[in-house]
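Running log. JK asked me to keep both predictions on one page so they can be read side by side. First protein, sequence followed by its tokens:
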Amino acid sequence: MAITVTITENPIYVTVNETDNTVTLNQSDNPITITTTSDLTLQAGSAGDIVYTQTGTLPGGNVQEALADLADQFFRQSSTPSGDNLAEGDLWYNTATDELLVYREVSTGSFEFHVIASAGGSSPTAFTLDGGSF
């Protein structure tokens, strides 16, 4: 017995009108309009006012804190990153040598940056991946 799966696209268009506080869901044959009694604009004044739940390496909190956390994990500069904010797995793109490095534990309690990719060769699109760094 064969199973046949057919997928069809039925686009639904959402229109938000801030002037009269309406939201319209248009399924072409059956548009639905909802009128709200409050303003539809976001009331958050800054990134610190918008909260999110934990995901991946981000612990949760507000968007401003998430941006700071991400900035502490990825570096793009010519000098070696340093300080208390370094953690295993952080990435650094060395703009002086065109190398991508990862911060990893080389022995118990000892961490170093190691090259995982470098732009080499005669072309800016020629990359060498060093899988032996791990």
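And the second, directly underneath as requested:
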Amino acid sequence: MGRVARKEKEKQQMSKQRKFGSRKGATFIEYALLAGLVAIVVAAAAMFFGDDLKKLFGATGEQTESVTTNVKNVDLTKTLKDAGNKGGGQQGGGGGQQNP
């Protein structure tokens, strides 16, 4: 491309920039509109599925509380003694002597 042609192309680009301005503002507006659309979709989904999700998480919370209560009530010393008497306290594939 010749020198004259390159200068002419640069002139045209500068003319377009002056005429239409910067794209930064347009990009910001596009992202703002997209974020607004996402917020609307999330709000609609929350309204539509809200009761079902509340029941699901409520049931999960109750089960978790039940398991926590059961774990707190376990006597680990007795459980460990029982495990020691059954298998000699060894895990894995044999090779060791078991308690009589």
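Observation for JK regarding the second prediction: The first helix runs from residue 3 to 20.
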